[in-house]
Amino acid sequence: MSFIFVIISISVYLLVTAMVIHSTHGRISRERYWKIEATMVVGFVSYWFFTIFILSFYLHNFSHTNFFYWMHVLQTLLFVIGIIGSFIFMYKYWQLQILRLHDLNKSGWYCLLNLIPFYNIYDFFVMNIKKRSIMLNEFDETIDYFSFFEKNKLLQDKKLITKDGVDFYVNGIKFEYKNFNGHVQYEVSKMSLENDKTLEEYCMKNLQQTENAPGYAGEYKISFLDEGNLFEKLKNDLHGIVIDDGFITINEVPFFVRENYLQYEIVYKTKDSSRIKNFSQVEELQDYSCQSLTKAQLLELITQGA
Whole-structure pTM over 0.85, yes or no? Predict the structure, then answer.
């Protein structure tokens, strides 16, 4: 029976680990890790002290009516609140460990090594002391540029143009490359284009349209002939902000923007450092430099350069 319990416990642990790893994306810098880890520990301890104080006060004021009844209530509430609080804390702490592993270019599955006796002591020092060795790695994810720009109303007179191989997107609307016997054209979903009136108006007035083409599930696409370099034409005419391979170009300087646990990090070529304002301590590694920014600082960087 005990063997079955062990198997079930390990299975549940692996399942929960897989769920946390699957839902955790990006990375966190070492300095940010220190601050968040310390905040979480202080918050967890304060949570328990606050809970005990409130419940003790509650018990003291009502214990005269039925001491044993209220003692049972106190124990039950402490247990329930403790379990809920501990679960939330452990889940967030688990995510923090995985983000830090990503920063060290390691898979989140490495956290399973903590099951080995005394390994967690070694792991504690590694997570808190070791510096990142690669500025950009396979675990990097950019912010959702379009959502960020749209939410902060940065697209009023500009368009985000994202390269994707031979295709590109304008404010999330796909321009799909087609080559028919040497004649290059781009197909766009008619329905998607109608959702962006300024882009639709520009395309209809300034681009040469070919016949509509049926798409999937009855969705019709509009084809525009590429009379030269359509990408460059749209970029210039629409004051396009270009995103290429995750790098967004502001003021002719491409940089990579990623989340850094409630903050942001920007990564750019060290040779462009003189053209980027220093908002925080600059970390240099190989050919890249990196800064940690608040949301306000990132907005300042974008609005001043865009």
Answer: no
